[in-house]
Structures are given as structure tokens and as C-alpha cells.
Amino acid sequence: MSKNKKIMAGLVLAAAAIMIMLFSTMPSAGSKEITIADLVENSDKFDGDYVMTQGLLKKESIKWDADKLELRFDIYEEGKGSLPVFYKGVKPDNFSDGVIVIVEGFIKENGVFEAEKVQTKCPSKYEGEDMKNYDTEMHKEIFHGKQD
Description:
Blueprint: H1 3-24, E1 32-33, H2 36-41, E2 51-65, E3 70-77, E4 81-88, E5 100-107, E6 113-121, H3 136-144
Parallel strand pairs: 1-2, 4-6
Antiparallel strand pairs: 2-3, 2-5, 3-4, 5-6
């Protein structure tokens, strides 16, 4: 093999490796963002689809089994229902009341959301200290995301 062909083959392999790295670091790129209400009402519509949803954590629903690394909890949208979630992995540190939980995974036939990824965010981190200028409509838009 000539020197130019070796260089070309190396560049092609490097480009392929970069593309694989880019796609593997964007897991949510392949997921559909669905509201909890839509998942609860139309779970069969999303059967087999990798989806993402978010809601507020029901603290009293948390069941953590540290030996098996199994976490069960419910998330909800105010006035729009709740969703039971099962996750096999490490429990997030800030798993407490008032936390927004973002889950990615699959809705099962029994109505339980089987999460492959669980993230939390505290809404108070994103609110300014000046509550006189707090825009509740903007918070709702951020919390619920864009609706299709």
C-alpha cells in the first residue's frame, strides 16, 4: 500500500471515529419529547419509541433499593396526571421535593416508564432573586418546553 493510501485510510478512520463520538454523545437527539399527559393518555401510540418527558418529583413515591440499584418514583404535571418511573442505576444526588426530573426511555405496556437516563434540575436555580420581575408564563414555557 502506498504512503498516500495509508494517509487517506487513516483520515477516513479518524473521520468515522469523530462521527461516532458525536452521535454517541447526543442520546436525546433520537428521542421524542412528549408531555406526561400525552404519555399517560396515549401510551400505546409511543410503544417501542425512545421518548423524553419531564415533570415534578412526588417525593413520597420514591422507592430506592441500593443493593439492586433500582429506583422507582412518580413524576407529575400539575392537573395533568402522573407517570410511574422505573430506573436501574444510581439515584441522583438532589432527588427531593420540588425538583424537575427529566427522563428518557420507553413506556411499557403496563404504563410504567422504563428510564435509561434520569436527570434532575432545580427550578430555583433558574429563577432570579428579583421576584418582582419574575415571568410565570416564561417559566411555564421553559418547564413544559415547546409544544408541537
